[in-house]
Amino acid sequence: ILSIFNATDPNLAVPVLIRRATVIGFYFLMMNIIQEKKLFQFVIVAFLLGTAIESSVGIYELISNEPVLKIEDVYQETVRIEGGLFQEKGKFRIQGFALDPDWHAYIMIIGICFALGVVFSKYINMSWLRRVLIILILVFLIINVFGAASRAGWIGLLISFGIILLFVQIRRKGLLIIGLFFLLGMLFLGMVFTSNTPILERLLGKTGHVSTSLRGEEARLSLAMFRAHPILGIGLGNTPNVKYRYSRVAPVNPKTKGLST
Length: 261
Description:
The chain has helices at residues 10-35, 37-64, 101-120, 128-147, 151-167, 173-194, 199-203, 209-228, 239-242, and strands at 74-75, 80-82, 85-88, 91-93. The chain is mainly alpha-helical. The chain starts with 9 loop residues before the first helix and ends in a 19-residue tail after the last helix.
């Protein structure tokens, strides 16, 4: 909010302000939904159904090597799209309806958090059949995160499991943690050796190294801006106008520039 006072270009500031207001409004809505138990359960079911459909699309792409939605074929330094799928060294990354592997993985992570919450919740009564269905959806979501070959998605997957297991109250939690991470490892290795996705290449940094170095520079750039303007920021939407003062080589990524503004 304080960064509004330093904004100098309304054409750049207004879109950023709208995006932030949308995010704040979404979280405010979710906090109110959480207070209504029945409505909250309905939202969870609706979201799980949506992510189940999205994950089924990813499974289809994984099996068929064909995109559900066609993207224009392009080739750039950091992105190669052939046949409508993101390609890296002859292998592809599934993308679903999101049309982007990373965003597809992020959607799956949100679904995983909901699914884990439902599975371990003491307040949601379910039959064994529904619980098995939720677990099946959870497996589909995890396969999609691996198939998207998104390193940020993998980190999010570990964090979501870690947070849920940290707060869940259950007997023999240690054995549960070992078992879950063993299953995650088996799924990961299964995807590495049976799918045509660049999982191992991205894990070892053999592909996507340009985007990794750019993001590292962008993080450094955002931190430099924050240190220079810790209270009011550089001004809402001003990043494109002032980045040359702090940047070495990298353009600013909208995902990381929020810290500076």
